[in-house]
Queue: 3 jobs
Job 1
Amino acid sequence: MPSYIAPTKDMAFVLNEVLDVYKTDIPGYNELEADFTGAVLEEAGRITGQVLAPLNMVGDTEGCTLENGVVRVPTGFQDAFDQVRKGGWTGLDCDPEYGGQGMPCVMATAVAEMFSSSNQAFAMYQSLTHGAYSAIRTHGTKEQKSRYLPNLVSCAWTGTMNLTEPHCGTDLGLMRTMAVPQEDGSYKISGQKIFISAGEHDMADNIIHLVLAKIPGGPEGIKGVSLFIVPKLLVDDGDSPGVRNSVSCGRIEKKMGIHGNPACAMNYDGATGALLGEEHKGMRAMFTMMNEARLGVGMQGLAQAEVAYQNAVIYARDRLQGRDVTGARNPDGPADPLIVHPDIRRNLMDQKSFIEGARAFVYWGAVMIDRARRNEDAEAEGLISLLTPIIKGFLTDVGYDMTVQAQQVYGGHGYIEEWGMSQFTRDARVTMIYEGANGVQALDLVGRKLAADGGKHVMAFFDLVQTFIAENKDNEAMKAFTGPLREASNTLQDADIYLRQNGMKNPNHRLAGATDFMHLFGHVCLGLMWAHMAKVALKALDGNADDPAFYKNKVATARYYMARRLPACRMHLARIRSGADPVMALGTDSF
Amino acid sequence: MPSYIAPTKDMAFVLNEVLDVYKTDIPGYNELEADFTGAVLEEAGRITGQVLAPLNMVGDTEGCTLENGVVRVPTGFQDAFDQVRKGGWTGLDCDPEYGGQGMPCVMATAVAEMFSSSNQAFAMYQSLTHGAYSAIRTHGTKEQKSRYLPNLVSCAWTGTMNLTEPHCGTDLGLMRTMAVPQEDGSYKISGQKIFISAGEHDMADNIIHLVLAKIPGGPEGIKGVSLFIVPKLLVDDGDSPGVRNSVSCGRIEKKMGIHGNPACAMNYDGATGALLGEEHKGMRAMFTMMNEARLGVGMQGLAQAEVAYQNAVIYARDRLQGRDVTGARNPDGPADPLIVHPDIRRNLMDQKSFIEGARAFVYWGAVMIDRARRNEDAEAEGLISLLTPIIKGFLTDVGYDMTVQAQQVYGGHGYIEEWGMSQFTRDARVTMIYEGANGVQALDLVGRKLAADGGKHVMAFFDLVQTFIAENKDNEAMKAFTGPLREASNTLQDADIYLRQNGMKNPNHRLAGATDFMHLFGHVCLGLMWAHMAKVALKALDGNADDPAFYKNKVATARYYMARRLPACRMHLARIRSGADPVMALGTDSF
């Protein structure tokens, strides 16, 4: 069975040395001393490694079962959920007014990475609840907040997000679920929602569904969508769950992965709901949570890659096959371990250099979210809005590829479920799809985010890269990193210019390059992260660091990213510059 | 449920117009008139589309079950296998002396593509039997041939290949299974083999296991391995199956995919076997079938991509989401179909340009196998030996990526098993692993094949490309294809030079670039195929072809491959040229 050991040292490196969180001028960050964050990471590492990871394969094998409207979760999940609740892990970054611990998003993100690595299906019960918490906290009335938030923060109740219907996912304007206003100010909700993760289960006293629906007579399409709170059990004035609402789970899907979390088809048959936020402003309410939710999924991409990588390394060290061509490394054994072989090493370095770069990128994104919120910093808000589709789309596309590469290290055993590598791949696959399929992320990037506020956020990004390069221009040791970063960044600027100039003439020139642009941008972001990490590591080595091997490995891994991963940038530029014509040449009936 | 319609028109295009098989000077090819091959393809298309494809999901859902040593196959498989046997599909390219139809490998490959697309798990029963047939036909005694081949050709009996053991797959020198010689000339085989596809099942009267084992006292390692015929039921002098041999299936694995075919752990407990070929020459016997077997797996990569693509197209036409930004295409409907969107179109064009290029590549490879065999042409043998790891490794790596892309078109539905797209991905995953994991293919290419016979085969390949370019140098319309092909080929030559020069100093420089070199080479091969297909299509358009749209689409798809896929070549070169240092910089304990 695979294992998971939280990479707390790498996490602490990013928090303390790369992002320097303790010294950052964001309210609340002055609590993030290394001793404190280290203790949180260690304790989270313990519960995820010892309690959640051993249940990961159980969840996959048993799955969830629906019987008489009740969904049963896999063996051990209830007990683990109790431990998680009791440990206070559910409200790390929630408002202390409602029982949360008030930590910044960046700490919650680091902890969430561990939860996701150790057991993605399990972690989703909690992360979806956090989504419902955020929506109600941001858009709810005072009464709604006091009624729902304490139990959502503690996960005594869990939450769900109900967007998709059988005929519409991306294009929610096609939605058919209706919300009919009642005389008492409530609404009767009717319709079917599908793919509702944790839509029904037996681990919580109540489930609070957030449901998008249309009020009759409202505007057409997406502008007529409102958001509703629809509890499974109606919450009476005493705020304890009471009568069963007219909402039920009609089916759970057989999925490729994340079997431990049920994807429910939810039937709303005149269920009682309360408007959350304003009428017809449901999409806007969803959008306010989007950066955080999508950053969370991008984090899952790196989290599955991390756990798959850890187990690939174990196998590569353990499995004896063939000999090092430069001389036997295990001469007394029948063969050398896989890890001596350059092609295995390339495979592992791809994974390692992606994961550590992605971690820095995601945590940096979380700092921007904190800065946007806690400092009401519009520039940080603009920059993280620009980078969000890249975090979500690029990190899950590449994260998935990395789980596939990790699986490949196992040879035939990688294909056998008993070894667990297949599950990582199957679980990771959903991250490319949910919370906006990656093609939609790419369109969001080139169709909306690039041009937002007159394009100033992408300019701010380029400034940031150029400033970094300029600051290090006299540092000889850094040239190995700033050089490739400059080239990659120039390539991205060329792509940006192409999209702007040609997208004016024909929007399809922009859209045809969307996915390549997202990947090109992602590589530049990870290049920037690695250049930054190399600088920190070189400085530590200059200063007689305690653990020089750790920093030398960071420098070597940065070098790998520059040499082996950044060359993808020019490929993406060439594809983008070929424009829409090759893509759109065939008629729709010629496929 | 997904469907499959054999792409007979595309297949016929490759056979008749690209490869011009009927006019080729290989014995037997003079029978391959378009009418004849067309009839075979149509009939194979019928049985695969109507009989095998509907059983694909049944096989996945039910899987195989082991009870009291008996493996039961999924519902409908037995009846379908009977139809396949009755239709004569099992011996297409087998020797007529043993009941086969004596067709060339290229025809069998085209038909096998359909079998694999429609139901990979089912097709494997037959393809493994074909492997056993080939081994016995090439290395068996006259008596062995007459005893086993007729029933293997008809698939009355099926065959297996037993190589892997729990502790060794790639490195078969570590093998522990022993074969002890008996006084009567037979051997007693003892040991455990794992991952034996179709190792036990109830669809055939007998199962003929080909087993690699060591004879005590033989040479160490791989040089002491011999090949044995070990029937499930001992075949008496009357050649009908009799007493049960001491071989049994101890376990079937839970796999990520190909559930309709059991991966058996086979226990040999002093089972009676007969030496096939010479003592200690077992690996050589396996190698003589390797090109064909690996070409067959490369074909599976394209076959799964093809069926996934077909279903992605259906969904992209059917599913309404969003609007074409250049103007509504379905103004009376609530939204436009997915296929209007450039990013979906890019996704589908990636698939289409890969599949059709890969098909030409694989069929061309099959022609080389035929030429090597039927004309005893050493140059063809050398060239296909060089290209085999590319066909296997590149086509299954990219084929898998394409099934993932096809699945992505379905959004959330792609993750739900009911829609069938997950199965294509899960089934395709094994093709990167079995018959030599793709990393091993890459090592075979750079470590063995490039240098074989003084490197003359890779030179022959470059000559072939240059000759094609030279022949078309005055053809204006071809410049759009020969230009990118020349650049890609030059890039490959640069990579080859790098590997030769630096691999001399340090073999790790060669090995660290192995996978990138395999992919770079694969792109050049598909570029060559597309340039060739473009030429044929342009010529047909000049000559007032019957169906100009068909040829225009070929030209447009060729253009897509040049514009959007060949830019990967320079990325691979850059990675290769970074050499072993970034890859090997970390100590084995630093991962």
Note: The mean pLDDT of chain B is 96.
Job 2
Amino acid sequence: MAKVVIAYHSGFGHTDVMAQRVAEGVKAAGVEVSLRKVDVLDDALWAELAAADGIIFGTPTYMANVSAPFKAFMDASSKPWFGQLWKDKLAGGFTNSGGLSGDKLGTLQALVHFAAQHSMIWVSQGVWPSAYSNDGKGSNRLSSWLGAMAQSGNSPAGVDNPNAEDQASARLFGERFGVAVMRWSR
Amino acid sequence: MAKVVIAYHSGFGHTDVMAQRVAEGVKAAGVEVSLRKVDVLDDALWAELAAADGIIFGTPTYMANVSAPFKAFMDASSKPWFGQLWKDKLAGGFTNSGGLSGDKLGTLQALVHFAAQHSMIWVSQGVWPSAYSNDGKGSNRLSSWLGAMAQSGNSPAGVDNPNAEDQASARLFGERFGVAVMRWSR
Amino acid sequence: MAKVVIAYHSGFGHTDVMAQRVAEGVKAAGVEVSLRKVDVLDDALWAELAAADGIIFGTPTYMANVSAPFKAFMDASSKPWFGQLWKDKLAGGFTNSGGLSGDKLGTLQALVHFAAQHSMIWVSQGVWPSAYSNDGKGSNRLSSWLGAMAQSGNSPAGVDNPNAEDQASARLFGERFGVAVMRWSR
Amino acid sequence: MAKVVIAYHSGFGHTDVMAQRVAEGVKAAGVEVSLRKVDVLDDALWAELAAADGIIFGTPTYMANVSAPFKAFMDASSKPWFGQLWKDKLAGGFTNSGGLSGDKLGTLQALVHFAAQHSMIWVSQGVWPSAYSNDGKGSNRLSSWLGAMAQSGNSPAGVDNPNAEDQASARLFGERFGVAVMRWSR
């Protein structure tokens, strides 16, 4: 059975909510999924990542970039990088911040570059933005393309924080990613 | 007297509205301003740009990047580039698209890179985002930092399209740019 | 049989040489390949792109970005974009310029964003850089990850211009892309 | 007297050499300069940064981005960011890695975005690349525009590692930055 690992960092819980939604989407596609926080970098994490068919990276946007704990994970990946252990795996990403645009694209770019250094293959968001449709579904409210974006208010994370439509788009992204992993792995 | 040229392309009029707001801001700072569409690349344009103290670049975001007519202007600037005629001038930028985030950052990055190739000095947006304040002013609604961003609906350009708060933020950016040009030129 | 289209613009012939090398690599993987210059935007081009299993984009780097003719192609793709006709196709890219680094990454980023807007899936370069190995092969001399980079001298395009090692890396990228298309399409 | 702080991280000493060269350039322009490693984030560092007329950021390129220790510094700057204490200061950047191109532009972009979030004003490299001249000076060998780039071999840092021409370009960038700070501060 195909397997996806969601490797992420969450500072205050909002990115955690996004990770849950992405995981639900992956599962809905019939793919096994594992949620792994990258705060602890132990052997089990690296073993799980090496065995995965696809890895989805998630991080809050801090200072227009991945968070420092996520960057520590990126730098620590130099060992699998040197052996190119993640080569040809599928990759994707999501991020969250307080602003509507707010340099979230800078974070997704950093994730794309990171995946490319690992010779991975990047799966884009693939959800048509509500700005260009009249279907009332409100999907991809922020018009993101590279990966899933979410915007959160300053209040604690919860059902409506990050924004509910952004959560729904994250789920759609997870499902798309799961379908792609099955196609790539068959 | 210090002088600023706003070199821009507008496809359907929305970026034009943004250019007007930026120009008002520059004027409010006591700096002369000239609005120049880059659809026509004649000697007068290049002469005006070479004489300016600062240049603000404006373009819609099409396909996550500057528009094709704006790119044609960029490529045509290889002559002043080869002579580095714009070296040490101040530069800034603005863009507009239909989505809230929608890869507008990709366009602003393209403008920053373009200005750097001309050895210019980049003035950031400098307007505190309303997402992080409770002042009710609604400035910098989209939380943009590199330059001024606007979001427009599909209806024709007008008083409220681009979004009125985005227009106000563009004016604030123009004023900031004008103040910077005066400081840099004195 | 799987099919790849290389959609590219070449200003002075150097990017054309790169396109040839990439095409040879795709063919070596047993995949049909079509070289299409995007200077002419006719119905045949759009039909071929819609029918392809994968599209590789190529452009010189002018002003830290794709060339103006390539940008015109990007903007003209708004029709297949609106129908998301290229969704789930594989995508990749290559670029060439006079400098060793010279903002070529800015161009590859623009291609990645473009592909993401079309909901495509991005295949990275995947060739280990010679800077990190002692195998004397000289592959991926410029240490590019997102796509294939080449550097050319001012002399006319030829056997050694772009740089011969960059040409060899382009061929390796084409082969990798072809293998990926076969795996994705089976 | 105008003052510049160089805030940087060096993993193995190569970026340290670059910082020395940039500092020499700033001094040559008649501007006071302070070299501060960001490994230790104490009150003295933040006080010095708040008092500076310009800040130059330096970091190795790890995984196509700033190093994790540098990212920790970026995230820790959220306090001066919230008060916008660095607003209108001049900013610049430099980076080093093992490859000729090697995603160094990604790192410089991250620094530009970071400076923009602090509402700073970005000074580009401003050194004409040797690829486009026949003056034999070998300056800006890598054709970088956004900031100073260097390439190092795997051997320990020294007189010729990073590459001597890259070191010379870093010095030229420091001098340009110093001149800009004097002009901006008078």
Note: Helices of chain B lie at 14-28, 43-51, 68-76, 78-82, 104-117, 164-185.
Job 3
Amino acid sequence: MYESFMRRAIALSCQGVETGGGPFGAVVVKDDDMIGEGMSQVVPCADPTAHAEIVAIRAACARLGMHDLSGAVIVSSCEPCPMCLGAIWWSRMGLVVYGNDRTDAAAIGFDDAAIYAEVAAHLEARRLPLRRVLADEALSAFRLWQAKPDKVSY
Amino acid sequence: MYESFMRRAIALSCQGVETGGGPFGAVVVKDDDMIGEGMSQVVPCADPTAHAEIVAIRAACARLGMHDLSGAVIVSSCEPCPMCLGAIWWSRMGLVVYGNDRTDAAAIGFDDAAIYAEVAAHLEARRLPLRRVLADEALSAFRLWQAKPDKVSY
């Protein structure tokens, strides 16, 4: 049932290549309507977060005027990377439909294996080093949050 | 040496709470200059990807006009979630400086444990289901990419 939406995502992935981006496209579908679409724009838009899925999610949220895409589905020409999987998670979508998988992507130079390992690794084992400073002062905003009576959780 | 930048990130995290977002702030630092900053804007901007780190990365890249932040450091009031860690990874920054950690965040209702588990899980074990369709057709953009002589890898 998602084939027609996948064909649109694939068309966007081809358009991505033709417009100087990477070979990735995605659409967000809700109630059988496409409410957002995107293609890889990392290089042409000088934005490392502009993966197809994130562009599509941002477009869908802008159209609906809300950050919550519960009940929507993302249809992506490729299995999402950890960044995009995180974005899909935060958007509360309920299903990921994909075409190419991470093995296909690795075969053309988009290898997510290192980043999957990085996210799963304990902080001490990370390739990207982390350093903690001012932990006590940083809690101040958390205390503000806890004390705020009208906060909107997300 | 990152204390002054962390104090700015903490100030942004407090401003996040005061302006209807979450208690998170971040700055991108390169050659001792702040080149981008951000606070959590998920709710006020209706954008689930608008975590402080992503807002700061996008601002820094917009200022520099490039997607590559090699040599820069992200200073975040809290340990990044997997989505943001992915964005930091793709931006090629070399160090993460953080204040609160994931345990502090979980204690005020921002629990990243489930999303860490999700990214690390095999596809069949994911809570967010995935379905594969049109794998053969989806390869078309990958073939275009491979055949493109002037492609810019990222």
Note: Chain A touches chain B through 93 residues (CB under 8 Å).
